[in-house]
Amino acid sequence: MEKQLKISENNENTIKDFPITSFQNLILKSPKKIKYGMIGGGPDSFIGEIHRIAANMNHNIELKCGSFSSMHEKSSIVAENLNLESYRIYKIYEEMLLEESRLPIEEKIDFIVIVTPNHLH
Predict the structure, then answer these.
(1) How would you classify the pairing of strands 111-115 and 61-67?
(2) Does 10 share its domain with 56?
(3) Looking at the chain, which terminus has fewer C-beta neighbours within 10 angstroms, N or C?
(4) In terms of Cα–Cα distance, which of 62, 64, 66, 41 is closest to 51?
(5) Cβ–Cβ under 8 Å, residues 56 and 25
(6) 40 and 14 inside one domain
(7) Tally of structural domains, the chain
(8) Would you call 16 helix, strand, or coil by DSSP?
(9) Are residues 68 and 36 in the same domain?
């Protein structure tokens, strides 16, 4: 049996079954770059860097925003090293979710990677 991934289809809190294989195909076959945000993965993070490297191997996925650390100064260091726009670096992940949801559709991220320490997620 194929595994299923639950995703929100719209702002009405409805849930739709979405096959994981379809999500993989979306990323691999998309004619446009898939944009993502990251929660966690600050300057001292091993797993955050591993996820960024893996995403870059696809050449079709682009990191656009993040809340990389609970310390905004550390998030800013990561953003500068990754050449991210400073207005898309957030102090807390809730701010990131809210502000990114307000962007025009062509600028919005397509998914989020959570790479906080294990005890935080």
Answers:
(1) unpaired
(2) no
(3) N
(4) 41
(5) no
(6) no
(7) 2
(8) strand
(9) yes
Q: Cα(45)–Cα(39) distance, rounded to whole angstroms? A: 11
Q: What is the DSSP string of 22-39?
A: HHHHHHHH-SSPEEEEEE
Residues 40, 76: one domain?
yes
Partnered with residue 115 across adjacent β-strands are: 40
Using alpha carbons only, give the angle 43, 48, 51 rounded to the nearest 5 degrees.
Answer: 145
Instruction: Give the CATH number of the domain where residue 76 resides.
Output: 3.40.50.720
Say how far apart CA 16 and CA 20 lie, in whole Å: 12
Domain that residue 21 falls in:
1-31
89: left (phi over 0), alpha (psi -120 to 50) or beta: beta
Give the whole-angstrom CA distance, residue 65 versus residue 86.
9
Strand-pairing partners, residue 39, are 67, 114
**94 and 105 co-located in one domain:** yes
pLDDT digits (tens, 9 = 90+) for 27-66: 666 678 889 999 999 988 888 889 898 888 878 889 999 9
Does this model's pTM top 0.85? no
Residue of 48, 103, 102 whose CA lies nearest to 77: 48
